[in-house]
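Milestone M4 deliverable, item 7.
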Amino acid sequence: MVQDLTNFPIETGQDDIFYTIKMIIVDKFEIDPEQVAMQSSIIDDLGGDILDTIELVMDIEDEFNIAIPDHEAQAIVTVQDMYDLVIKYFEY
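Output delivered:
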């Protein structure tokens, strides 16, 4: 795990959320952090597949202590999509 976000401080900004998502992706795909951008497609740009996307969602749910509904998780294509769902469901 990248870091324990159970006691994620209220003042933590959205840049920290992106950084955490990015580091989860970097750890999972063993890639350089510079390869991960908001517009990166998990499959086309980062070399993942559908199973990797599902595993990323599970890792992100665990990291941020959130639950992303399956119908929304299935629509994730880019890092931005994942980020938007964390912002939507994460309570500061």
